[in-house]
Amino acid sequence: MQIKTIQLHNYRCYEQADLSPCPGVTALVGGNAQGKTNLLEAVVLCATGRSHRTSRDQELIRWGEDAARVYVAADRTDGSHEVELTLRPGLRKGIVVCGKRAARSGELMGHISAVLFSPEDLRMVKDGPAERRRFIDMELSQMRPAYYYELQRYNRAVTQRNALLRDISEGRATSASLSAWDSQLAKSGGAIIRTRGAFLARLARVAEENHRELTGGAETLELLYQAGAPEDEEAYIRALHDHMDVDLRRAATGVGPHRDDLVFLVNGRDARSFGSQGQQRTVALSMKLSEMRVMRDELGEWPALLLDDVMSELDPSRRRALISRLKGVQTMVSCTDISDLAGADIGEIYTVEKGILTRREG
Ligand SMILES: Nc1ncnc2c1ncn2[C@@H]1O[C@H](COP(=O)(O)OP(=O)(O)O)[C@@H](O)[C@H]1O
Ligand SMILES: [Mg+2]
Questions:
Q1: Which CATH number describes the domain made up of 119-302?
Q2: What percentage of residues in the chain have a pLDDT greater than 70?
Q3: CB-based pocket (< 6 A), ligand 1
Q4: Which CATH architecture has domain 1-113+303-362?
Q5: Ligand 1 atom closest to the CA of 64, numbered from 1
Q6: Digit-coded pLDDT (tens) for 292-342
Q7: What are the CA-CA distances from residue 227 to residues 77, 128, 199, 231, 258 (Å)?
Q8: Which of 40, 89, 90, 171 has its CA 20 to 30 A from that of 199?
Q9: 206: left (phi over 0), alpha (psi -120 to 50) or beta
Q10: Low-confidence ranges of the chain (pLDDT < 70)
């Protein structure tokens, strides 16, 4: 996939921007707080429907303005694709896909495909399970709109079941009324767990290979998927049933994919607790490279790669390994100093200053 055009209007610090990234590596160079991440974030927004930094659209609208617009057009093997988003405070996103207004946010998925690698990806390794589930969900939703809808259904069902749990414990409903929700949860949650399981199994194989390569054979990486419920429907319902007393006490559902986790084992040990900062960073890099690879296999073409300020944090050998993977992958890479990209085959350089992009000649 090739991004042809990125246009921003009143998005974050940009009043107006119009960029046509080259097919190879486009470098975005600028000091702190000039708008590099904002630009990449806009692409993420068109690819996934959400920003990686905030869930509040209001923050994306340029201060003092009442609407923001983001437009990304890309060429894929099956033709050209366009996503246009309009953000207004307090309103749902206006979404236009290939010239047609979309009724549901899931409709924007699958048109612009991008993988973002940023320093925050370290959180996937270091932070709690919610970060890892977010990574899995962003990924799967981007590749499969059906998964995204299933997730929405599931989350709604959990919220409703939790409300019912509260009603039961306060005597406004009987526990017999739970069973309808339990079968719905088992159906939807089971489907999510099966999809995540299959995806993670593929990711694990690729990640293991990537990690071995990145560490020159010194480290192994294993991914362990810890599902929050059995994937089999009947077993799932039984698990819900067995957990009912605790659920009633807490007015919260304790079984299901919203409790999933993913463990990264480096040389057999949990990288979250025992990994050094450097090892954790390498895990994040292995995961990103693997995500890109799995997406390519699924989509039949490379997604765009967005590298946000990660070069300066990698040691020279990891940096070289990353750069060697960029062949044939359209890449947008931000950095504060162009020397961070030494060794990369840079197609174009833009300077980013106070929300203004300037193409550097020569
Ligand atoms: N809604 C907004 N309106 C105007 N400016 C914004 C908005 N949100 C963030 N900014 C500004 O954008 C800048 C940060 O841009 P960012 O892309 O994160 O910088 P960097 O170049 O370091 O990646 C900051 O100066 C911040 O004040
Ligand atoms: Mg930044």
A1: 1.20.1050.90
A2: 100
A3: 12-13, 30, 32-38, 59, 61-63, 352
A4: 3-Layer(aba) Sandwich (3.40)
A5: 3
A6: 999 999 999 999 999 999 998 899 999 999 999 999 999 999 999 999 999
A7: 36, 15, 13, 8, 9
A8: 40
A9: alpha
A10: 362
